[in-house]
Specification:
This protein is an alpha/beta fold. The protein contains twelve helices and ten strands. β7 and β8 form a beta hairpin. α2 runs antiparallel to α5 and α2 (27-35) packs across α6. It is globular.
Length: 282
C-alpha cells in the first residue's frame, strides 16, 4: 500500500512539474554575459562600471523578440550588446551619422561619419556575432531612408539629446522618434544631467542637459514618462568642468591635465528616463 501511495505522489508531482511554465531567464544575465564578451575590446568592457548595460536595458524593458532602433551608436558600445541579444528573435536597426559623401564641411560631422563607417565595417566583418543589423542614417530630425511610422517596439538613445538641442532639433527629433514607435512602445533615453539649482532652473555647461527640460520636451511631442532611474547617476560629477562633459572620460578633453582626478570621477552623472507612446483610447 505504501509503495502504491509513493508512486501516486511521484506521478502527481511529475505531472504538475510538466504543467508548470518554464521559468523565463532574467534578461540581465544574458546582457551581462554579452557586456563581457571577448568580441568587445578591453576599453569598452571597462566602461560597464559606468554605463550599467544590464540594469539599464532591463529598466527599459527590453525583450529578445523586439524590434529595436538604436540612435547614433557611435563606436557601437551598446550595439555590441544589443545586436547579438536581438539577432535570433528580434529585429535590430541602427541610425548612423550621415555618411561623408564629400559635401561635409564641419569637422565634427566628418569625425562622426568616420565612426559610422568604422562601425559598419566591424559589423560586416563579424557577421556571426552581430547577426543582421539594418542600417539607416539620421541627420536630425530626418531619417534616410524615410521609415514607415509605428514599426519599432523600442527606440534607444544614449547621450545624444544634448547634440540635438545644440543644433535646435531636439523637439523635432523627438517627434520623429515618437512617430516611429508603435503605440505602447518605449523610448529609453540616457543623457548627461546638468546641475539643478531648483525645480525651474539649472546650470548646464557644455554637453549637459537639465532633466526637467528633457522630460518636458518629450512630453510636448506626446511621450508619457513612466519611470526614471538613478542607475547611471554619479555623485562625484560636479558638472562644472572646463570643457563640460567632455572633460571627463572617455573623452578626457584636457589631455594629461588633472587626468588622474578626472579618471577618479569617472563618466558623467546621467539621467535614465523611460517614456512610452500612449495607446490611443477608443
Amino acid at each position: 500500500m505504501k509503495k502504491i501511495i509513493t508512486n501516486i505522489v511521484l506521478t502527481v508531482g511529475l505531472t504538475l512539474a510538466w504543467q508548470l511554465p518554464a521559468t523565463e531567464p532574467d534578461p540581465r544575465q544574458k546582457i551581462s554575459e554579452l557586456a563581457l564578451s571577448s568580441a568587445r575590446t578591453a576599453e569598452h568592457i571597462s566602461r560597464n562600471q559606468y554605463r550599467h548595460p544590464a540594469d539599464t536595458l532591463h529598466f527599459f524593458g527590453i525583450e529578445p523578440d523586439m524590434a529595436v532602433l538604436e540612435v547614433w551608436p557611435g563606436r557601437g558600445w551598446y550595439t555590441e550588446i544589443l545586436a547579438p541579444y536581438l539577432k535570433d528573435q528580434g529585429h535590430f536597426t541602427i541610425a548612423q551619422f550621415r555618411q561623408d559623401d564629400g559635401t561635409l564641411k564641419d569637422e565634427r560631422a566628418k569625425f562622426w561619419a568616420r565612426l559610422s563607417a568604422t562601425l559598419s565595417d566591424k559589423i560586416s566583418e563579424q557577421e556571426d556575432y552581430f547577426g543582421t543589423v539594418h542600417q539607416i542614417e539620421l541627420e536630425p530630425p530626418y531619417f534616410e531612408p524615410a521609415l514607415a511610422s509605428e514599426q519599432f517596439d523600442m527606440v534607444l538613445s544614449f547621450r545624444n539629446a544634448h547634440i540635438w538641442d545644440e543644433s535646435g532639433h531636439l523637439s523635432a527629433t523627438l517627434q520623429s522618434l515618437y512617430d516611429l514607435l508603435k503605440p505602447g512602445g518605449v523610448l529609453g533615453l540616457v543623457e548627461h544631467r546638468a546641475a539643478t539649482l531648483s525645480d525651474t532652473t539649472s546650470v548646464a555647461v557644455e554637453g549637459y542637459l537639465d532633466e526637467a527640460y528633457v522630460i518636458a520636451a518629450a512630453e510636448q511631442v506626446g511621450f508619457e514618462l513612466v519611470a526614471r532611474s538613478e542607475i547611471n547617476a554619479n555623485l562625484l560629477d560636479s558638472k562644472d568642468h572646463p570643457k563640460g562633459v567632455y572633460t571627463l572620460p572617455p573623452t578626457l578633453a584636457l589631455g594629461n591635465y588633472n587626468r588622474d582626478m578626472y579618471l577618479a570621477i569617472g563618466e558623467s552623472d546621467r539621467m535614465t528616463l523611460k517614456f512610452i507612446k500612449p495607446v490611443a483610447q477608443p
